[in-house]
Amino acid sequence: MDKISSVSKVELTNSDFVKPFRILYEQDGTKKIWDCIKIHDSVTILIHNVSRDVFVLVKQFRPAVYINQAASHGETGSEVNTEKVPGHLGLVYELCAGIVDKNCGWNEIAQMEVLEECGYQVPLSCLEEITLARGGTGVTGTKQAFYYARVTDDMKVSAGGGNVDEGEMIEVVEISVAESLTFAMDQSIEKPVGLIFAFLWYHQYKAPKSIS
């Protein structure tokens, strides 16, 4: 998954998923310009395997993270020296997630993503909506729904790994709930802020409270 080669940056002229555009407006009489990107809304799921008290995450190569890592290593040109910037620098731990691109309920999309990426067949009754938030407010302003899914080993029906036909390469990983806060705050581990939020939410609202 991290055997990356022949990396280069080219101009984006057309995309099915990312649509850049510019907004012209006036704010308190001052003319302004703001550049934005249109992308899909999304769902993301904190999967809790209660059989073994672990969180089920995904790990995958993220080109945008890799390119930023390359820049921090002095690779700012159109091509990246992959010997200097190895592929593992682009690997990111994330919650199971997916874009809203189907004509069905968002919880149904979350259910499908859990099966596709992590291999668990989760009844909709085991999916709890945590909250709905705006992501990328400076650039995209899209909605992202957070869900909490309680699963058991008995619900595991496949290895997961994502949709191979779409080129997805996903590794399913497990993090002990007991160690999850340490994991979340470890700056050496690449992860998005949504994962940190979900772990903190669980420990605030779901974790068993000790009686003092």
Highlighted features:
212 residues; alpha+beta; Nucleoside Triphosphate Pyrophosphohydrolase; two-stranded antiparallel ribbon; globular
Number of domains: 1
| Beta-strand segment tally | 11
CATH superfamily: Nucleoside Triphosphate Pyrophosphohydrolase
Order of helices and strands: EEEEEHEEEHEEEHH
Unreliable stretches, pLDDT < 50, 5 or more residues?
none
User: Over the alpha carbons, how many angstroms does the gyration radius reach?
Assistant: 19 Å
CATH class: Alpha Beta
Task: State mean pLDDT (0 to 100 scale).
Answer: 96
Description:
By secondary structure, the protein is of the alpha+beta class. It has a single domain, classed as Nucleoside Triphosphate Pyrophosphohydrolase (Alpha-Beta Complex). The protein has helices spanning 63-72, 106-118, 180-185, 193-205; strands at residues 7-8, 19-27, 30-38, 42-49, 54-61, 79-80, 91-94, 96-99, 127-135, 142-151, 171-176. The strands form 3 sheets. Strands 4, 5, 7, 8, 9, 10 and 11 form a 7-stranded mixed beta sheet that branches. Strands 1-6 form a two-stranded antiparallel sheet. Strand 2 (19-27) and strand 3 form a beta hairpin. The protein is globular, with a radius of gyration of 19 Å. It starts with 6 loop residues before the first strand and ends in a 7-residue tail after the last helix. The model has no long low-confidence stretch (mean pLDDT 96).
SSE inventory with pairings:
Blueprint: E1 7-8, E2 19-27, E3 30-38, E4 42-49, E5 54-61, H1 63-72, E6 79-80, E7 91-94, E8 96-99, H2 106-118, E9 127-135, E10 142-151, E11 171-176, H3 180-185, H4 193-205
Parallel strand pairs: 4-10
Antiparallel strand pairs: 1-6, 2-3, 4-5, 4-8, 5-7, 5-11, 9-10
Function: Hydrolyzes UDP-glucose to glucose 1-phosphate and UMP and ADP-ribose to ribose 5-phosphate and AMP. The physiological substrate is probably UDP-glucose. Poor activity on other substrates such as ADP-glucose, CDP-glucose, GDP-glucose and GDP-mannose.
EC number: 3.6.1.45
Protein name: Uridine diphosphate glucose pyrophosphatase NUDT14
